[in-house]
Amino acid sequence: MAKSASIGIPTEPIGSIPRPLALIQRVARGGSEDANEDPDLAPLFEDAVRDTIERFEATGSPVVTDGEQRKYLGFASYCVYGLPNTAPDGFTIPFANGHTRRLARLTYGPFRYRRYADRYLEVAMRYAHVPVKQAVISPSALSLMYPAETIPDYSREQFIEDLLREHETEIRSCLKKGAYKVQVDFTEGRLAVKIDPSGHLLNSFIDLINLALARFSPEERRRIGVHTCPGNDHESTHSADVDYAELLPSLLELRAGNFYIALAGEPERRRVLQIIRKHLRPDQRIFVGVTAPTNPRIETAEEVCDRVLEASEYIPIEQLGTTDDCGFSPFFDNTSLSRDTAFAKIQARVLGTKLAEKRIGGH
Ligand SMILES: [Zn+2]
Fold first, then answer.
1. CA 361 to ligand 1 centroid distance, Å
2. Res. 3 pLDDT band, cuts 50 70 90
3. pLDDT over 90 at 139, yes or no
4. Contact partners, residue 10, CB within 8 Å, separation at least 6
5. CA gap 171, 42 in Å, rounded
6. Which residues sit with Cβ closer than 5 angstroms to ligand 1, an ion?
7. What angle do CA 73, 171, 125 make, to 5 degrees?
């Protein structure tokens, strides 16, 4: 019998790369309300994106991002930063090492994004020679901006309607401009179980994201993915203690075509893979995390390969992919990991995935 044709295991990053220190320092001195729109800063941002994409491509990564160099404040706040109808004292994300991050609070309606992520994609695509992926924040994370008490003349229902429209607009613009994939960052999924162990909050998040996904065609949803992780900031997490068994069955009810699931940092990977196998649907591809951004130690290609082989025991090869457990610096000012380390880890992911392809394909 002829040898089977060589198999392909897609590999994709999550998104963020630590920003150059000079850029972080310059933005911190700031003065501008919106650093992205400050003409003095524009060349620094441009350089950061160009350098990031160059180094990304040098790792051999078949899909790259702009490293979210321009997402000021971070993965969750880039689209609302600088809005006049927000206050800084919104929802608090507590991390295991004691530090916190806060979202903005909406003070009056209507809710509109200040900027959409397709503006980042556009710049990245000017520099990239390979497909570019774009991450966007989930509607569920932004839903936390609406305060506990009702805003006068702007009901929660009106807010959700505006939010879904803005989120849909953002994804559509990214797809239209040629994003290889659009990834919805859903780090608050696992956190939701911690905040509300009854599962009610998680289910409301799943419903909200599914309402958004229902606006897209099956072909479009094949280019849309959802990322879950226990959080990643200053080498710490916000919900690693939440059992994946409480999250994954609901997560896989999302009508997205791709799932980017942090796995490398999990203590019981096989147990997680069993849960995925049980709830996986035929039209879903699972990108398992094979590198851990919360750990500064650089994985070897062999190690990555072993993790892919392990995952392939549970997930059909045609539904398997690899990724990093999270972005390497989801918040703009985080310097706990160096750019060198981030790219070295990405290279290990790329090489290790190729190695696994060869082993599984029998070459
Ligand atoms: Zn993440």
1. 30
2. very low
3. yes
4. 62, 63, 285, 287, 321, 322
5. 24
6. 187, 229, 326
7. 75
- Looking at residue 258, the DSSP 8-state letter turns out to be E
pLDDT tens string 298-357: 999 999 999 999 999 999 999 999 999 999 999 998 888 999 999 999 999 999 999 999
Please tell me the distance from the alpha carbon of residue 64 to that of residue 342, in angstroms, as a whole number: 13
Distance from the alpha carbon of residue 55 to the mean position of ligand 1, in angstroms: 21
Instruction: Give distance in angstroms: CA of 121 to centre of ligand 1.
Output: 19
- Give the predicted TM-score (pTM) of the model: 0.96
What spacing in Å lies between the alpha carbon of 3 and ligand 1's midpoint? 38
Q: How far, in Å, from the CA of 189 to the mean position of ligand 1? A: 11
Tokens in use for 160? Answer: 């959700």
Q: Is the dihedral of CA 301, 307, 313, 316 positive or negative?
A: negative
H-helix or E-strand spanning residue 167: helix 156-176
Centroid of ligand 1 to alpha carbon of 5 (angstroms)? 34
Cα of 7 to ligand 1 centre, how many Å?
Answer: 28
Confidence of residue 32 (pLDDT cuts 50, 70, 90): low
CA distance 334 to 17: 10
Ligand 1 centroid to Cα of residue 242, in Å, is 15
d(CA 223, CA 180): 7
Tell me how far the alpha carbon of residue 15 lies from the centroid of ligand 1, in angstroms.
9
How close is the Cα of 325 to the center of ligand 1, in Å? Answer: 7
Residue pair 79/71 in contact (Cβ under 8 Å)? The answer is no
